[in-house]
Amino acid sequence: MKEICIVEFPSNLGLKEPQPGKEPGVKNLPDWLWKHHLHKLIHPKNSVRLDPPKYSNKRDPETQILNSNSLIDYAREQAYLLNNLLSQNKFPFILGGDCSILLGTAIALKQKGNYGLFYLDGHTDFMNISLSETGGVGGMAASIVTGNGADKLTNILNLRPYIKEENLWCVGNREYDDAYENEIRNSSATYVSLDHLRNQGVLKCVQLFLSEIENKNLDGFWLHIDVDVLNDTIMPCVDSRTPDGLTYAEFNELTSVLFQSNLLTGLEITILDPDLDPTGQYTKEFVSHFSATFNQHIHLGS
């Protein structure tokens, strides 16, 4: 039986400043979720924290990416920590941070074997730097971990690709724009937009993903959750708001099936910005739904 270990990666290195001179507040997410009792509710065996390098809003001249050198240093430290946990048969329950925390996770997974990635997000995050207005890795994370983009980020420790492109499922995007969507449509990843997810049915989509993981005989899969996949009316405290999104009924149905799989290796929660939820009303609701679904359905096999 795997033990749950909460891992805190309070990084905002993958986002632009929301206003000049102000850092993105998502770096406070682990403390904010602790304040709203998530740590207590999911009964972890222990918790560990790795603070990131200092934030800067300057682009790296070589890659045009924000904080690229800091992200590389941080990813290596993250991977070392996660590799140790996975070697001890722990279940890493990661609290971000923005989506750039995926880099360290993906490197650790590559070091352990061949894994799938279920990328649940209101955006594909499968974007080339040429399309990025901000230079933030948060909007390119799924693309970078599958080997697309600047060599210094995609080939850390000579491990490109960290996740094979054909083992990536991007699910829940509702940023409907041809230039944006064509990036993932033209890849070998599986792309399931929000409209497609609803037409296909949540259960069918997840079952197809799980059967693919089994048929390919992968070592397991990772669940990435950007809370902006949720409907904007129930989760407005994110950096890039878009109308529509999953209801809690849809989100709970989807995650409950993933939680029941003994191939789920770990998960991460990203993007909820405490600065944008001053009363905590949206966070409380999220913690209530997530912890209840997780505790009811999680299957932590050997």
From TrEMBL:
Cellular component terms (Gene Ontology): cytoplasm
Coiled-coil region: none
Source domain of life: Bacteria
Keywords: Hydrolase, Manganese, Metal-binding
Pfam families, per database record: Arginase
InterPro entries tied to this protein: Ureohydrolase, Ureohydrolase_dom_sf
Alphabetized Gene3D superfamilies for the sequence: Ureohydrolase domain
A molecular function GO annotation: arginase activity
Keyword match rRNA-binding: no
UniProt family annotation: Belongs to the arginase family.
PANTHER family hit by this protein: ARGINASE (PTHR43782)
Name of the protein in question: Arginase
Species, as recorded: Flavobacterium tructae
